[in-house]
Amino acid sequence: MSDERELPELQREQLALGELPTAQRDVLLRRPDTEARLAALQTSNAEILAAHPPAVVIAEVRRRAARHRADRNIPARTLWLVPTFAVAAVAVAALVLWPAEDVPRDSLIASHVRPPDPGETRIKGLEPHLLVHRQEGERAALLTEPAQARAGDRLQLSVVAAGAKHGVVLSIDGSGVVTLHAPGDAAASTALQQDGAVALPSSYELDAAPRFERFILVTADEPLDVARIEQAARAIADAPTAASKSLDLPPGWRQRSFLVEKVTP
User: Fold this and answer.
1) C-alpha R_g of the chain
2) β pairing state of 212-220 and 166-173
3) Does residue 254 form part of some domain?
4) Largest alpha-carbon pair distance within the chain?
């Protein structure tokens, strides 16, 4: 076997995208540093997507194309390929974008990565979790716990499924209010997309609720009962321990929180 230092980083990127043949994947997963490097790749992908959301990139490309068309009096049909090629370039550079038509419309969140191999299993040591970015001007900063934010800050949540098939994201704030973030409503599918950090369709602006905003990701290998999870969150929302107390959920349902402490200007 080749020396660890000789292993191309591209192979780890292919692992994150589910593109390695089974034999190569199994060899790579036996290496002691694979889990940490895979997690780092997923975080990097999330930072790229948070800083350059596909919808924003498409809008900007179209705006520039329209301006170019107006400046040169070029018919609209002549430039129909420009947005497509520009967005494709961003997709290749980021290694995380995937055409929208390949994503199930009823899935929990719109994926920007390749759909998983049906036979893929959860990578040992990598657990489902949330990534939280705060918009700071034209860039997005990745937050780490204990994180601090102010009312009016805009946060973007991303889910790292790590092999979990279903998930629900909600939050509890310091006023005892429970907010469902994904899926869009309690009747929608809770299916998760795989292979990396997947941004929720909309960012979230913090309101004036005091003390904290606690984001909770609940995952399982079977479809989740969204109403039951909301009920469990409301049961602790007014408790003094709402910022840390676990939800009362059925065995096999995993939960992971990300706490944002509210600070005053």
Assistant:
1) 20
2) antiparallel
3) yes
4) 64
d(CA 93, CA 86): 11
H-helix or E-strand containing 61? Answer: helix 54-72
pLDDT single digits (tens) 135-147: 988 888 999 988 9
- Specify the length of the chain in residues: 265
* pLDDT at residue 90, as a whole number: 41
Q: Output the domain CATH number for residue 242.
A: 2.60.40
Q: Regarding predicted confidence, which is higher, 116 or 13? A: 13
Between the alpha carbon of residue 175 and those of residues 39, 89, 140, 231, the distances in Å are 34, 44, 27, 16
Burial class (CB in 10 A: 0-12, 13-18, 19+), 76: exposed
Token pair, residue 62, equals 């179209």
Alpha-carbon torsion 53, 56, 62, 65, what sign?
negative
What residues does 257 pair with on adjacent strands?
216
Q: Concatenated DSSP letters for 174-211? A: TTS-EEEEESSSTTS--BPP-SSEEE-SS-EE--S-SS
Collapse the DSSP code of 132 into the 3-class scheme (helix H, G, I; strand E, B; otherwise coil) and give the result: strand
At 107, the amino acid letter reads S
Tell me if 18 is assigned to some domain. no
Residue 35 lies in a domain: no
Tell me the mean pLDDT in the region 11-21: 63
Question: What's the angle, vertex CA 247, arms to CA 243 and CA 251, rounded to 5?
Answer: 150
State yes or no: pLDDT of 64 exceeds 90: no
Q: Could you tell me the residue range of the domain that residue 196 belongs to?
A: 129-262
The one-letter code for the residue type at 206 is L
Spatial contact of 143 and 204, defined as CB atoms under 8 Å apart: no
Domain total of the chain: 1
